[in-house]
């Protein structure tokens, strides 16, 4: 799916969220943060997986959220997050470890379904804006590669969460799969396509 289609979908969902907030039974604001486990996935020009030994990299995210409860079973949720992402490349061809360091501003819009009280399943879409990208080789050599990557990324999000009863605390686990190619023409031509993968474990605090 093209970036343009994702952009229009995101704008539509953002507008829909704004309307629902006006009609919601409850609207809560809060802050959240937690652990990221991020990696990169590539495809070669012959459409076969690249011999690309990118490993999941532990980082972090933090930011704020708005949660609108539409009914007993349904809700909608959006966030503004600063997210550190990237991957480790420990390929046998590279004598030194390569550390990809990406910084994103993430804007997910999530639909929530509550099968039981306080527990919810999540699904939605995320817009990510690239703030900075570096490639570190070994312990010292750092290259700025922001121009080698797309300035935006779109992904699909899935997960679940639990809101602790009689508290303002929530716990959430989410998986984000990047849907567009983030590599520009300046990226390694042997890795024609490149996509983000992200697992997030978050702790949130809502203001009541």
Characterise the protein shown here.
With 208 residues, this protein is mainly beta. It has a single domain, classed as Porin (Beta Barrel), CATH 2.40.160.20. Helix content is 10%, strand content 62%. It has an eight-stranded antiparallel barrel. A hairpin with a 4-residue loop joins strand 3 and strand 4.
CATH architecture group name: Beta Barrel
What does the largest sheet look like? 8 strands, antiparallel, barrel
Average pLDDT: 83
Distance between the termini: 39 Å
CATH topology: Porin
Tell me the domain tally.
1
Outline: elongated
Instruction: Tell me the Rg in angstroms.
Output: 18 Å
Q: From the helix content, strand content and strand pairing, which structural class follows?
A: mainly beta
List SSEs in N-to-C order: HEEEEEEEEEE
Poorly predicted regions are none
Helix tally? 1
Strand order of the largest sheet: 1-3-4-5-6-8-9-10
Strand content: over 45%
Tell me roughly what share of residues is in helical segments: 10-25%
Number of DSSP-assigned strands: 10
Q: State the name of the first-level CATH class.
A: Mainly Beta
Topology:
Elements lengths: L2 H21 L2 E18 L10 E2 L1 E13 L4 E16 L8 E19 L2 E19 L3 E4 L7 E12 L5 E10 L14 E15 L1
Antiparallel strand pairs: 1-3, 1-10, 2-4, 3-4, 4-5, 5-6, 6-7, 6-8, 8-9, 9-10
């Amino acid at each position: 799916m093209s970036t343009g289609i994702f952009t229009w979908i995101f704008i539509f969902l953002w507008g829909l969220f704004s309307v629902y907030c006006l009609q919601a039974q409850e609207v809560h604001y809060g802050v959240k943060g937690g652990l990221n486990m991020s990696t990169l996935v590539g495809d070669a020009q012959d459409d076969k997986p690249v011999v690309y030994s990118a490993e999941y990299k532990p980082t972090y995210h933090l930011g704020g959220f708005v949660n609108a409860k539409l009914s007993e079973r349904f809700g909608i949720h959006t966030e503004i997050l600063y997210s550190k992402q990237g991957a480790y490349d420990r390929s046998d061809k590279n004598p030194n470890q390569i550390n990809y360091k990406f910084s994103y501003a993430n804007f997910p819009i999530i639909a929530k379904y509550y099968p039981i009280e306080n527990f919810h399943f999540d699904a939605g879409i995320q817009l990510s804006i690239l703030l900075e990208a570096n490639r570190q080789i070994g312990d010292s050599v750092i290259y700025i590669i922001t121009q080698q990557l797309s300035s935006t990324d779109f992904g699909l999000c899935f997960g679940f969460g639990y809101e602790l009863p009689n508290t303002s605390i929530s716990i959430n686990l989410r998986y984000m799969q990047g849907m567009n190619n983030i590599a520009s023409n300046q990226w390694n031509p042997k890795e024609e396509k490149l996509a983000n993968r992200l697992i997030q474990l978050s702790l949130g605090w809502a203001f009541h």
